[in-house]
Design brief:
Layout (H helix, E strand, L loop, with lengths): L10 E3 L1 H4 E4 L4 E3 L11 E2 L5 H5 L2 H11 L12 H5 L4 E3 L6 H8 L11 E4 L21 H18 L5 E4 L9 H8 L11 E6 L6 H5 L8 E7 L5 H7 L5 H11 L6 E7 L7 H10 L3 E6 L8 H7 L9 H11 L5 E2 L8
């Protein structure tokens, strides 16, 4: 798209123009790497300004502006699959800085990352098989790396961030680095911050933990709780180290906080039949449901992943999953995400 060209009806994705996701090895992504695998740089090797307007980032933005969406996966990305935000027309973009950059066809941006998704501390109170093979503890080098990334995020990303998401990897209540970072947020260090989103398994989010974040209460505008089950037996099997009863007690508390809730569910062969009951569980707490395909993050061998991945057409229970998804498709409080193409 050429600068100055009136192309407000063209569909674009705002993520490469706003989103920054940082992983434990320092890799920086302009989208979820399950959907767009190409990193735009490494925060352990480069400064964030160098990465944000570096050649990889500019190339991604160019591919959005020219309409090719090259390197994006239309099968894995739930927003491309559903044609939902951040996929939108430029006319729908309300942020004035972002809209100006899109209208002018800019790939070198005059502002820093607006949305920061922290994924750099893998420590969690659970060890779910979909995420890790065993409980994870950091050695001295790992803790030093997390500390260095924390400092660089606060120094280089915090001045620009308008929205903070904690966390795409690890747990905001189970990770020492995330807890310390959240506790240290002030208007001086994060001057543009307007929204905080919590992404957690919910096991440690009780009244005492919430009280420790009292300074952030006005900023927490959303919460996603990864559950993946509707019964204690299934939860015990796929949420290793979790307690379903404790989760429900915490949800009773969380539901009183008037924070918009999303309950997420990664679909696999051991849990998909519980989807209708899971929707009812979410409604009980006033939450919407978000579904996603199982992704192999290196925790399964090929045979085990194939056995679990009921969303793959060759799976013997694939059509049974599709029938359940058809039942849920028209529900306004259920987002099928990247499972929608199955229909």
């Amino acid at each position: 798209m050429k600068a100055g060209m009136d192309d407000s009806a063209r569909r674009i994705c705002t993520h490469p123009f706003a989103w920054c996701e940082i992983h434990p090895d320092g890799s920086v992504f302009a989208c979820c790497p399950a959907w767009l695998k190409t990193p735009i740089g490494n925060l352990l090797e480069q400064s964030l300004p160098e990465i944000w307007n570096g050649p990889a980032a500019r190339g991604l933005r160019r591919n959005i502006l020219n309409g090719t969406f090259h390197n994006c996966s239309r099968k894995r990305c739930p927003r491309l699959a559903c044609d939902a935000p951040p996929v939108m027309t430029t006319a729908e973009v309300v942020d004035p800085e972002l809209r100006a950059a899109l209208d002018r066809g800019k790939v070198h941006l005059p502002y820093g990352p607006k949305i920061l998704n922290l994924c750099f501390d893998p420590r969690c109170n659970l060890s779910c098989p979909t995420c890790r093979r065993a409980p994870l503890a950091l050695d001295d080098a790992g803790r030093e790396r997390v500390g260095l990334l924390t400092r660089r995020i606060v120094e280089q990303a915090a001045p620009h961030a308008e929205e903070l998401i904690v966390s795409g990897y690890g747990d905001p209540f189970g990770s020492p680095a995330y807890r310390e970072l959240l506790a240290a947020i002030t208007p001086r260090t994060w001057p543009r911050l307007r929204r905080v989103g919590l992404h957690t398994n919910g096991q440690l989010w009780d009244a005492a933990a919430w009280a420790q974040l009292a300074h952030l209460h006005p900023l927490v505008k959303s919460a996603e709780i990864s559950i993946d089950a509707a019964t204690a037996a299934t939860y015990d099997a796929i949420r290793r180290g979790g307690d379903f009863g404790r989760l429900l007690r915490n949800l009773d508390f969380i539901a009183t906080l008037a924070i918009p809730l999303t309950f997420s569910f990664v679909v696999q062969c051991v849990n998909y039949r519980e989807l209708p009951v899971f929707v009812e569980l979410a409604r009980r707490y006033g939450a919407v449901v978000y579904l996603g395909q199982l992704v192999n993050w290196g925790t399964f061998d090929r045979a085990e992943f194939t056995r679990r991945a009921v969303h793959l057409p060759g799976h013997p229970e694939y059509n049974e999953l599709r029938a359940i998804l058809r039942q849920l498709d028209e529900l306004c409080d259920v987002d099928l995400g990247n499972l929608r193409p199955l229909l």
